[in-house]
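During the no-cost extension, the postdoctoral fellow (Dr. R.K.) reprocessed legacy sequence entries with the updated structure-token encoder. One reprocessed record is reproduced below for audit purposes.
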Amino acid sequence: MPPIPANDLIQRPPRSARARLGGYVILPRMLDKGRALITGKNGEYNYACPLDQFFLQFAGVDPEQLKARLAAGDGDGAILAWIRRHAKPARGDAEILAWSDYMERRVPASVEMRAYFHGLHEKVAPQRDDIATWFDLLDLDDYASFGGKV
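Re-encoded structure tokens follow.
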């Protein structure tokens, strides 16, 4: 089977953190960033960044082992099957759904993180008053970074 083509994250953003694979948010975005890193087309996107760490810790998956599966050319379905075999602890569908729903609604919790969040928001689109969650901010930043009108 030929390797899965990597997204060129210099030309377009990875999938939204809201996109789900096997019920997991963050995972499709992380796979896009990993594939792009392997081909040197990750631009300003970082694989295993702090956002990715939420997934990695919840799933109990090693980022280097996952990157090796990506380098081998595994598609999303094969990666998901690998995660299900290697997750520690194993997670059930209801637990994955609850975690993903929580992650999708996550807001900056500390004073420092709220200041950081609002600073980024001010840089990207200060006129937008509908940006409340981390995923909102990521989607907005991706859109604006690639020429979208905010």
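The first helix runs from residue 27 to 39. The chain has two domains: 1-105, 107-150. The remaining legacy entries will be reprocessed before the final report is submitted.
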